[in-house]
Amino acid sequence: MPERAPLVLIPQFFGSLVFDRRTSRYLPFDAEATDVLRRLRAHPIDRLLAETDDADRRGRLQRFFEHFYDLGFFTVDGRFAGAVHDDLDVPPDHLTGPLAVHLEVIASCNLGCTHCFAGDLPRREKRLNLEEIDRLFAEMARLGAFRLGLTGGEPLLRKDIFQIVDLALEHGLAPCITTNGLLITEEIAKEFGKRELVWLNVSLEGATAETNDRVRGPGTFAKVLDRLAVLRKHARFTLAFTIMRTNLDEIDACAELAHEVGADTAVFRPLYPVGVAERNQELMPSFADYTEALNGLSRLGDQSLDDPLDLRHIDPFSPHSRQETQSVIHQNYGCGAGNLVCSISVSGDVNPCSFLGPDFVAANVRETSLAEIWHHSAGFQAIRALPHTDPASGHGQTATFAGGCRARSLVLAGSVNAPDPWIAEQVQAEARSGSAVRNPLVILDVSARPRGRGCHGSCG
Q1: How far apart are CA 150 and CA 260, in angstroms?
Q2: Span 312-317, mean pLDDT?
Q3: Do 330 and 338 contact (CB within 8 A), yes or no?
Q4: Residue 310, helix vs strand vs coil
Q5: Are 94 and 339 in contact, with CB atoms under 8 Å apart?
Q6: How far apart are CA 54 and CA 406, in angstroms?
Q7: Taken in order 242, 243, 247, 250, is the CA torsion positive or negative?
Q8: Among 192, 299, 343, 361, who pairs with 235 as Cys (CB 3.0-4.6 Å)?
Q9: pLDDT, tens digit, 9 for 90 and up, residues 76-109
């Protein structure tokens, strides 16, 4: 693989984003800090300090440098350790490109799970070939869209999956794969071990065969555990769980299972009522039940315990953890569809989010460039222009979307811009109290045993 700078500065309307290849994360900087980083790419810190007459500004510059030097942003001679994407046209009101692209590499699967977001499979579509995928990856890199989720269906059914991964790595992208694990062999496990993925997610839906197999099919729990015993010898992996009514009482046990089978982490997400799950909405937990499940996991991380698990709150393919102390790149009222992320189907259809369904497809990358779709398509412009009501000024009532998931609003309330019914009580309670409405989706990453290699990010 070509040698690349560890950091990439991507100009944005507010300043810039810096993508850190070592952690596969984005960090936002305002215009002033961006100017400093640009100058430090050309000149060492000593020269900038010498050229700064104002003592207060010189002190702030010194503190800025020292803080980010500790994060590996600068070389030993005091220069910015990164490349700069200076050939981008910077839009005035949205990002130069998605921060993450979810690419469906195959539309078939060897399972028929009752909660699958991909819908009924197989779908008969002419899938993107390697040449088309190579062009797509090159354009993603030009746009600064470095995070790539490879999804399905079951990605390992695609015989050229490792060629796809290698193309992504050659273009400097940070790929991750989500698999059901059943097709993992010794050879496949070794191939995974040769590559630096952000994450290799293996899905389970419970800590017992009874709970998991109710959703994924008879015998899958035992088969996956058998495959994980092979995988753990060669590669890092994560266990990914979907929180549903069927496994609420096993969430703590799921985290412990991840530790027992040698996973680096366990990731928990709520069920979304899309795809096959739209017909099985009884599987959806209430928001209160979901919150209580996460609170239980948090207790596992209690440092007063003799052997606490390491917990991290993360957002899948998002630039920030949604906590009030974190930086916010683009406030889309709690949903990144069309602003932070996009999805591409197996045949090249581009959607602000795959959960929104075919009615929201903007265009196809076989006919239109990803940049053109991202910047100028009617579909992406429309979702960015949706009006909203600030519930804090509406006495707890909101006529439009005010946080959560637009796809969930579409399914449960009939419109992408309706209030998300799943979180309506929380939104109204926060509005009555005068507090800021926050996205309630917390993805909990439970690290059983840190191994000191790679990063903790998520495909989503």
Answers
A1: 26
A2: 35
A3: no
A4: strand
A5: yes
A6: 48
A7: positive
A8: 192
A9: 999 999 999 999 999 999 999 999 999 999 999 9
Q: Which amino acid is at 441?
A: L
In angstroms, the first-to-last Cα distance of the chain is 26
The predicted pLDDT at position 435 comes to 57
Q: Are 25 and 455 in contact (CB under 8 A)?
A: yes
d(CA 66, CA 442): 32
Query: How many other CB atoms are found less than 10 A from the CB of residue 428?
Result: 19
pLDDT > 90: percent of the chain = 69
Residue 227 vs residue 307, higher pLDDT: 227
Q: What share of the chain is helix, strand, coil (3-state, %, to 5)?
A: 35, 15, 45
Give pLDDT tens digits for 240-295.
999 999 999 999 899 899 989 999 888 888 899 999 999 999 999 988 888 888 77
pLDDT at 433: 67
Provide the token pair at 167.
């193309």
Answer yes or no: is pLDDT of 394 > 60: no
Task: Enter the tokens of residue 273.
Answer: 């009522």
Q: Are strands 174-179 and 147-151 parallel, antiparallel or unpaired?
A: parallel
Sign of CA dihedral 101, 105, 110, 113: positive
Residues of the chain with pLDDT > 70, as a percent, come to 82
29 near 15, Cβ under 8 Å?
yes
In the numeric block, which tokens belong to residue 42?
């050309």
Say which residues have a Cβ less than 8 Å from residue 410's Cβ, sequence separation at least 6: 356, 357, 416, 418
Helices (H) and strands (E) in the chain, counts: 14, 15
Give the C-alpha separation, 445 to 457, whole Å.
9
| Omega within 30 of 0 (cis) for the link into 421 | no
What are the two backbone dihedrals, phi and then psi, of residue 167, each rounded to the nearest 5 degrees? -60, -40
Angle at 224 (CA atoms; ends 220, 230), nearest 5 degrees = 155
- CA separation, residue 255 to residues 76, 308, 311, 313 (Å): 41, 11, 10, 14
Give the C-alpha separation, 227 to 216, whole Å. 16
**Contact between 404 and 334 (Cβ < 8 Å):** yes
**Lowest-pLDDT range of 72-86, 221-235, 311-325, 375-389:** 311-325
